[in-house]
Amino acid sequence: MTSAISAQGLAKDFGKVRAVRKVDLEVARGEIYGFLGRNGAGKTTTIRMMLGLIRPSSGTIALFGESVRERRIAALKKVGFLVESAAAYPNLTVRENLELQRRLTEAPKGAVESVLERLALGEYADRRSGHLSLGNKQRLSLARALVHSPELLVLDEPANGLDPAGIVEIRGLLRSLADSGITIFMSSHILSEIAQLADRIGIIHEGRLIEELGKNELAKRKPLYIELSVDQPERAAAILGERLALREISPGEGGSLRISDAAARCADIARELVTAGIGIDRLLPVEENLEERFMRITGGEA
Amino acid sequence: MTFAKVFGSEILKLRRSKITWLSFLCYAFFALMAWFVFWMLKNPEAARNLGLIGQKASFALNGLTADWQGLFTMFAELGVAGGMILLSVIVIYLFGREYSEGTAKNMLALPVSRAYFVAAKLCVAALWFALLSAYLLAECLIVGKLLGLGTPPAELAARESANLFLSALLVLALQPIVAFVTVASGGYLAPFGYTIATLLVGNLMIRTDWARWCPWSIVALLGGMAGPRQEGVLLGSSLVLAATFAVGVAATVLHQAYADNCQ
Q1: A51 vs B contacts (CB less than 8 Å)
Q2: A255, A233 in Cβ contact below 8 A?
Q3: pLDDT tier at B43 (50, 70, 90 boundaries)?
Q4: Span A181-187, mean pLDDT?
């Protein structure tokens, strides 16, 4: 079966600026793919090439096996999208904006009412979109992307402008869409959103796709250090150095100890300290989260 | 996807749009001005008594006479001069709003031929301008009645109506380039600048022998904006206008199809 998205050697130059460099990407059908990158990393340019809004300088991109460059209309038939900011015709109501989309995507007549209900936009249906809040405009854009029941959703920052409750709601919606077999390709600055939703994550930096993490790799977190709070920190450090040969022990916050030694195990530490009669308040293994991993890979500070 | 659906969607986009009504209001203002000028032309004594013209001044307007011929000529001039500006505003609005409202990316990423969008917008502009021209003609007849000119001779009315719509068609031929400047610049400012520049060029060229080869002067010549109105369009001038139209359409379609949309 062909992939939902397949890009080979995708590159885009704007004059001397190399926005995207030789990106190879495969997104399987039914997968939720999170696309991460800092501002200016090349996320939106990649998404725009995917939707045929920008022509690649080199390389190819196909959606469901149809080349976006050579067969744009066929490639985009099964695609719903939200690119950057939410936009709608301000003089038209929410229902009219969706009706416009329905006509242009040749969706069935009941599609507008169904998507209004799904996105909880019913009470705003007859309000002009120019009078909507940013969050509801974002909902409208998502509704527009869903009107024709696409098989692939390409979403650039779908949580933009949504309040925490709205984010949780949209997460649930995207999860239910993915469960029904829709492929979702989404970029977001909210890393926790991506971590909770995505089956796979690609990190783009300076135009290059520098890392891809699968669900298993996302679950396996790199241990960073062990945080230890005890009643006698200096004596505890000496005992751990002497009995467990731990060398990388440094003072942490609020009088705690930070054990960065790769050989350190919580069970061994607890046993030795209890044996020595030292009271333990806290013994916590700290692992690298997606945000820290992202910052480490892209050269930022965690 | 049929062209009719795209055209229908462009009509839907105009719902509750203020500019639709403003354009008709603008033409209503033209009629009011024409009525006022013609009233003075027809009643110079009354106008003099009201202090609208000087006691010793004579009131003449480019050789216009206070009859149906004069009135039709004045409305034809208004149709060309006002139309050149107003139709540009309409075209700039139809194409430019997609950029100012941020919807261009939504439109261009749809699985629909982009040439359909260009054609549909130009057809909407043509339909809009045809309605405005019909409205202007109706205003002309109403103003004539109000001025007590009686019933216009049928032959004159038919000829002048045909002239008015021909002028509208020629003004329309200039618009695809305005559409191109709008989509290429992605906003309103550049096409407005372009429109003003072409009006200036048209007005300068009209004083030279090259006027009938300059697209922006040809329309002005026909509308009688510089001296007596030229009757009919020369074949060479028609070809220049046809070429201007074709180049504008091709440039706009090619831009929409191939240029990067980084809105």
Answers
A1: 105, 109
A2: yes
A3: confident
A4: 93
The Cα of A212 is separated from the nearest Cα of chain B by a number of Å equal to 27
Q: What is the model's pLDDT at position B228?
A: 59
Lowest mean pLDDT among B80-84, B112-116, B190-194, B250-254: B80-84
Last residue within a domain, chosen from A181, A203, A219: A219
pLDDT tens, residue by residue, B78-115: 888 888 899 999 999 999 999 999 999 999 999 999 99
Q: What are phi and psi for residue A213, nearest 5 degrees?
A: -120, 130
Are A204 and A101 in the same domain?
A: yes
**β-pair partners for A63:** A5, A66
Do residues B172 and B126 touch, judged by C-beta distance below 8 A? yes
Q: Give how many domains chain A has, as a whole number.
A: 2
Whether A52 sits inside 8 A of B109 (CB atoms) is yes
- Whether A15 maps to a domain, the answer reads no
> Measured between CB atoms, which of B6, B103, B262 is closest to A88?
B103
Together in a domain, A103 and A118: yes
* In the predicted structure, residue A9 carries a pLDDT above the cut 50: yes
User: Residue A171 falls within a domain, yes or no?
Assistant: yes
**Å between A5 CA and nearest CA of chain B:** 16
Asked if the C-beta of A83 comes within 8 angstroms of chain B's C-beta atoms, the answer is yes
Reported as a single tens digit per residue, the pLDDT across A38-96 is 888 999 999 999 999 999 999 999 999 999 999 999 999 999 999 888 899 999 999 99
pLDDT at B63 over 80: no
Q: CB within 8 A of A286, min separation 6: which ones?
A: A223, A224, A225, A226, A227
Interface of B with A (CB under 8 A): 1, 5-6, 8-9, 12-13, 15-18, 97, 101-103, 105-106, 108-113, 258, 260-262
Find the angle CA(A214)-CA(A215)-CA(A216) to the nearest 5 degrees. 90
| The pLDDT of residue A20 is above 80 | yes
The strand pair at A152-156 and A79-82 is best described as parallel
Q: How far apart are CA A106 and CA B112, in angstroms?
A: 10
The domain containing residue A99 runs over which residues? 29-53+75-219
Yes or no, beta carbons of A100 and B13 under 8 Å apart: yes
Q: Does A51 touch chain B (CB under 8 A)?
A: yes
Mean pLDDT across the stretch A215-221? 72
CA–CA–CA angle A215, A216, A222 (5° rounding): 110
